[in-house]
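Progress narrative, Year 2. Work on Uroporphyrinogen decarboxylase from Heliobacterium mobile advanced from sequence curation to structure prediction during this period.
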Amino acid sequence: MTPSERLSAYHRGEPVDRLPCVPIVGNTAARVVGAKVSQFRGNGKLLAHAHIEAYRLFQYDIIRIFTDLYTQAEAMGATVHYPEDETAYLEKPALASHGELDQLQPADPYRDGNLPHHLEAMKIAVDKVGKEVTVTGALTCPFTNASFLVGAEQLVRLMLRNPEAVHRLCEISLETNLRYAKAIIDAGCTPSLTDAMSSCTVISPRQFQEFSYPYLKRLIDYIHSRGKSVTLHICGKTNRIWERMVEAGADCISIDNDADLLEAKEKVGCQVRLMGNVKPSEVMLQGTGDDVRKAVLDCLSKAYDNPKGYIVASGCSLPTETPFRNIHAMLDTVRRVGYPVDPEKLERLSTG
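Result:
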């Protein structure tokens, strides 16, 4: 089956050869084509080539065009540092203080920063392999993007001292999100949502409800209005906001390795598909092929029977230097288990 055929059949409850599997390949794609990570900047053709070749090499089920979390913030004026061969990081927020809010403008995805190059990569990937595999474009959600506009520490202070400024930041950030989501969908792709700063590791559930949820829901509502489903990833501990993530409209929740798949299944598995959560660093980067096999089998034992479905995946984007053999090991394990999952076979493989 092609990945598109597999996902469509699985969604309809029809026979499939195996569960969908998505090692979340980010800048590891550079290694597949012998490129440096910094070469992706301003080069949509290379970015597309790398992700297409990574998909062809590993045969996973979803392509995600991604380099870093800062593409929208950079397009709105943030300064992003690009090491020669490592993932980019935020060097300076767009604003020195919230007093400069009136200067902030939503980004134009066809003109500003690296957004046009990411869109070019998406279009190329859709043109070349879009008939056989779903192509998604990474989109950093309103609250997290807002933290890159004014700085995470200042945003936390503003939530306590000037909540109205936070709402203004999120509103402008949402407008960029909506414009970029439209451009991603118009390119033939599906937005893939990431909201790292909305984690309970960073803010409280009450703060999530007040400052993140309203804007996240409006973004998801728009994506649904365009006929696309939504996968939402929030890093770190999220068990206290899983219900809110479902209420915001997520069709699939990507569970970070800091959370527990079994708990997620018990709490929200009747409402939403789950995805995750093999450890990206400890297992996928640093482990052996056997470590990967055991971790995948452990995740399967917890979530293969999730009522709304389950996608085997890493808990977050893979580190750039993740060994190819470990990505192959993840896919090979899922193929070996097959579908429907036989609990006795799963037990034998886990103890063998």
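The mean pLDDT is 97. The two ends are 28 Å apart (CA to CA).
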